[in-house]
Write a structure and sequence with these properties.
Distance between the termini: 166 Å
Strand content: 15-25%
CATH class of the largest domain: Alpha Beta
Largest sheet: 3 strands, antiparallel
CATH architecture of the largest domain: 2-Layer Sandwich
Radius of gyration: 50 Å
CATH topology of the largest domain: Tetrahydropterin Synthase, Chain A
Structural class: alpha+beta
Number of domains: 3
Order of helices and strands: HHEEEEEEEHHHHEHH
Number of strands: 8
Number of helices: 8
Shape: elongated
């Protein structure tokens, strides 16, 4: 049997398998298809020239040797950047910010053509540095703290306009931290302490004023009550009070005459004067 197989090979019986084998080898060698992954876009190059078409996710065919497909990530990415700048009152400010961004998918070919794959180092980071310095220079150091939302919003708007020209979209922007010189930090703490003490003193003064007003009001009310009572006192009222006092004394008397010295002394209960 082995001899028969060898004879068949010699007689050219296996020629019919050569073409399929060659085709398989060529397919594996030149790979005329490409797969674009999730969150990516395919940049088509014809002999190195960027084409207008942008490949979406999935399997795509390409012309071997002629075409090359470059995958570009269009998912949301994050950039953390630190920058040193100055406020409008010439205070040194160190800022740390975070930026979320993504390549506009249907403009990925233009980004690759004009910037390349190193767009973060070439475009993102320098833009963040410039915007942070420009915006912080319009605020005092104290305003950078007290108006932080407004500062963040202004920086995001400036970055959005700047990066959009490079076909990069800003998704979110946030200021992570501000830091100042130790001298300025101590001055801020001293000012806050002084403001708190002044506020406490004002509250104490207001409390004292209220208490004084309450005391005056109470004294005024008491004086008015005494005045009204005095106006209502009459001779008949005085006589009535005397009678009421004598009646109470009689009710409390136990019937025993008090022991007195001196002849002819008798107990006396006043019944009022006519």
């Amino acid at each position: 049997m082995l001899k028969d197989l060898i004879n068949e090979l010699k007689n050219g019986q296996m020629k019919k398998f050569i073409i399929p084998i060659v085709l398989v080898i060529l397919l594996l060698l030149f790979k005329p298809w490409v797969q674009v992954g999730a969150g990516e876009r395919g940049i088509v190059l014809n002999f190195g020239a960027v084409q207008d078409v942008v490949l979406n996710e999935g399997i795509h065919f390409r012309i071997p040797i002629v075409q090359k497909i470059i995958p570009m990530d269009v998912k949301i990415q994050k950039a953390n950047t630190d920058a040193a700048s100055s406020s409008s009152d010439l205070q040194d400010v160190d800022l740390s910010v975070a930026l979320n961004y993504h390549i506009i998918p249907d403009k990925a070919n233009l980004v690759y053509q004009t910037i390349g794959l190193s767009f973060k180092e070439r475009i993102i980071d320098p833009a963040i540095q410039e915007v942070m310095k420009a915006v912080s220079a319009r605020y005092t150091a104290e305003e950078l703290i007290t108006k932080r939302p407004a500062v963040s919003s202004e920086m995001q708007e400036a970055l959005t306009n700047r990066l959009l020209a490079s076909h990069i979209s800003v998704d979110a922007f946030s200021i992570i931290s501000f830091s100042f010189s130790q001298t300025f930090t101590d001055a801020i703490e001293a000012k806050q302490t002084a403001e708190q003490n002044a506020l406490k003193a004002k509250r104490d003064l207001d409390r004292i004023k209220v208490e004084a007003q309450q005391t005056v009001a109470a004294a005024t009310a008491e004086a008015e009550a005494l005045r009204l009572q005095k106006m209502n006192i009459s001779p008949d009222l005085i006589e009535l009070r005397k009678i009421e006092a004598n009646l109470k004394a009689i009710e409390k008397w136990n019937g025993i005459l008090p022991t007195v010295t001196g002849a002819g002394a008798v107990p006396f209960i006043g019944v009022g004067e006519k």
